[in-house]
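Q: Two folds, back to back.
A: First:
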Amino acid sequence: MRYLMPLIVFMVLAVFLFAGLSLNPRQVPSPLIDKPAPEFELSQLHAPEKILSSKDNMGKVWLLNVWASWCVACRDEHPLLVQLANSGLVPVYGLNYKDESATAMQWLRQYGDPYEVSVVDPEGRVGIDYGVYGVPETYVIDKQGIIRHKQIGPVTVKSMEETIIPLIIELQRQA
């Protein structure tokens, strides 16, 4: 029995390890889902003298995309965000994360600017409040300021068509 116990412990640990390896790291549940979006007041990227507050979007469904010019994956999702913004379905706001403003503005000139407004989070404090693991991340926020979805990693055609757009349409129908 004395020699059997370490084998049993090893087997239990191996089962947990194997189960953990089968999980998708992009599906980390966010504790902020169905909770109020953290409030912020940040300078606008293109007009630093102007402030955007998260309260400015109360009463409408909106998308918050956390991005940076140094983020390679942000380039992958960017055409989809431009397309979504051009559709007029939902306002898209940017949270420029730990970036140089001049570089960020150049990046938007080069790749297109899908954002109603992009705000600057140079130290990443607002990103921390939102539980950002890394860029890009995208949040769908409802009319009451509640986070309804968090996309970790780049938005894909599949996530846009199967999750984000249907959710936006559903939220816009609600009072």
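A: Second:
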Amino acid sequence: MADEKKQNLIRKLQALAERGVGGEQETARRKIAELMAKYDIEEMDLSEEKVEVHDFQYHGEFEERLLCQVIYKNAEMSDIYKKSSGKGSRNTYFIYCTKSQAVQIQIEYDFYRDLWKEEIDLFYKAFVNKHHIFPESAEFKNTLSKEETKRLMFMMLSMQEKSPVLRIEGGD
């Protein structure tokens, strides 16, 4: 049996060991161990992906923190390098990981970054409304859904009660 065929058989058994039902999983695991010993195949030989350098761009302090969190979640952090550009430009992290890890990192980072932008927009609206940072005569049309309005109200309730008037008077 050619090496590639042996490795493909073991990969198929690995899939069965992960997705199989009941006794299939245990039987597949035993067969994998048996075949790997018989054909002198190492775990690394089965890996379809090599560890390579992948780059991830971010902009600003929050995006950097978020990217690092996603990287820590998805890849071992043995080697990570940061390249900073001038202020206001994109910065880059270079890490050693597999292609599938890089894809997962990028997907999660893009998702959470976009979600953050949505959340921060709602937080801003809650903050402005909580502290009445608008003209007294302003009239507003509520363009938020019922769910967003409910979330906005809860956010406002959880915010601190502070006023610049109290600061001027020396109270807070």
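Q: And?
A: The helical segments are 3-19, 23-38, 43-46, 60-74, 99-130, 146-158, 164-169.
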